[in-house]
Design a protein that fits this description.
Among the domains are: 54 residues, Orthogonal Bundle (434 Repressor (Amino-terminal Domain)), CATH 1.10.260; 113 residues, Tetratricopeptide repeat domain (Serine Threonine Protein Phosphatase 5, Tetratricopeptide repeat, Alpha Horseshoe), CATH 1.25.40; 87 residues. The protein is mainly alpha-helical and 428 residues long. It contains 22 helices and no strands. The protein is elongated, with a radius of gyration of 27 Å.
């Protein structure tokens, strides 16, 4: 009825020897030793006395209690994955108390892994990093399922810190574990594809996002577990990469189908806004700037100003305005974003966009050359750095400074070659 390792953990947590515990329970030390070595099974009376004497009521320590509690943890994970954070928040304190009281490494690992995911989605960076530090010290106690979720979270942690190569290493380890165990984690392949998309690996991003879409459909149809939140975000990133690869018609068809579906759901304001952002992005990729701006403006009507999607929408609208030679409007759009709370990388991207549109200003030119490009390279934004070098090259070519035009053209080619080398050597 009680797992032998759990009994050992309970005894050690209370600072008891086998003899001490035997005296408390009213049995022999030999019996305790036999239970801990899994040679004997604990009787119901033994467990009841153990709980009473050590005040373990409410702690999931028997096999049946462990199974029930682990089911509760998995249901909590589903709430977190589906973004039902109000209900997840209500359950957190109870689950934390039970996990700590369980004296089970496995249960505690599951709780901490899911708690890290809870903090990540809640945007509590400090708590997320603190929990990850705790988990880093426990990797030797991880089962394969623990390892999979740990590397999944580690990849997210590295990606958020713009250490993309380290993120990919973690995702590859998680992918190997997922394939060996055939869990088919929708969220994992979505975040993997999103990371590849952000790095500019279009073909590979499409492959992984399509895998996530397939798994999401499988869970929806065959297991009755729809997750519209994931579906919308998968379609958005997939459409962006399809348009980059010249399949804009396919991207539009997918997004319009998704839009029709979302309009029939309740409380879908944010996801509808995200779809309009995605439709605008496809128009942006195909240089249909007026259509892009129209959809970005519609997206603003649905997105929360504090959301990351709102900031992305501002960036892409500004880019569409600048690309269509509406420079002043684009700069105003960027200035609005710079007044908001932005992380260092996103702030650099907005500043790059603004100053690339104002290169005739000597201060902007100098800032672009001396500061912004080096920051982009530091944060791993290689594709954006290439664009900046090409923009500078085009500016100097127009102004008749062919020496600098050639210099920045060669620098763009150099970064592009490094990206290609990393792509090939990284096995992508």
């Amino acid at each position: 009825m009680i797992y032998h390792r759990t009994l050992i953990n309970i005894r050690k947590k209370h600072g008891l020897s086998q003899e001490d515990l035997a005296n408390i329970i009213g049995c022999t030390a030999a019996h305790i030793d036999a239970l801990e070595k899994n040679r004997e099974k604990a009787a119901f009376e033994f467990v009841a006395t153990l709980k009473s004497k050590l005040n373990l009521y409410g702690a999931p320590i028997t096999e049946d209690e462990r199974k029930v509690f682990i089911d509760k943890l998995h249901n909590w994970k589903i709430l977190i994955d589906y973004g039902v954070m109000d209900k997840a928040s209500e359950q957190k304190a109870e689950l934390e108390k039970g996990a700590e009281a369980s004296c089970s490494s496995s249960i505690l690992n599951f709780y901490k892994l899911y708690a890290a995911n809870y903090y990540r989605i809640s945007n509590d960076t400090e708590a997320f990093n603190k929990t990850m530090s705790f988990l880093n010290q426990r990797t030797e106690t991880f089962s394969p399922s623990h390892q999979f979720f740990y590397y999944r979270l580690l990849g997210i942690q590295e990606r958020v810190a713009y250490r993309y190569n380290e993120a990919l290493k973690a995702y590859k380890k998680a992918e190997k574990l997922d394939k060996e165990s055939t869990w088919g984690d929708v969220g994992f392949y979505y975040i993997y594809g999103m990371c590849l998309s952000e790095m500019g690996y279009v073909a590979k991003a499409i492959e992984y996002l399509k895998r996530a879409k397939h798994l999401a459909m499988w869970h929806k149809v065959y297991e009755g577990k729809p997750n519209d939140r994931y579906d919308v975000y998968i379609d958005g990133y997939l459409a962006d990469n399809l348009s980059k690869s010249g399949k804009a018609d396919e991207a539009h068809a997918m997004l319009n189908k998704r839009l029709d579906s979302e309009k029939t759901r309740k409380n879908a304001k944010h996801t509808i806004g995200f779809i309009y952002l995605s439709i605008g992005t496809v128009y942006l990729r195909t240089k249909k700037y007026n259509d892009a701006i129209e959809n970005f403006d519609t997206a603003f009507q649905h997105l929360d100003e504090t959301s990351e999607a709102y900031k992305t929408n501002l960036y892409r609208k500004a880019l569409a305005l600048i690309e269509s030679d509406r420079i002043n409007e684009g700069v105003l759009c960027v200035d609005k974003a710079l007044d908001m709370s932005l992380d260092d990388t996103r702030r650099t991207l907005f500043e790059t966009l603004k100053h690339s549109a104002m290169l005739s200003n000597p201060e902007s030119l100098q800032y672009m050359e001396n500061t912004l490009i080096s920051q982009l390279l530091k944060y791993g934004q290689y594709a954006e750095a290439v664009k900046c070098y090409e923009t500078l090259s085009g500016f100097f070519k127009k102004s008749g400074d062919h020496k600098n035009a050639l210099k920045y053209s060669e620098l763009a080619l150099e970064v592009h070659r490094e990206l290609h080398k990393e792509h090939v050597e990284g096995g992508l």
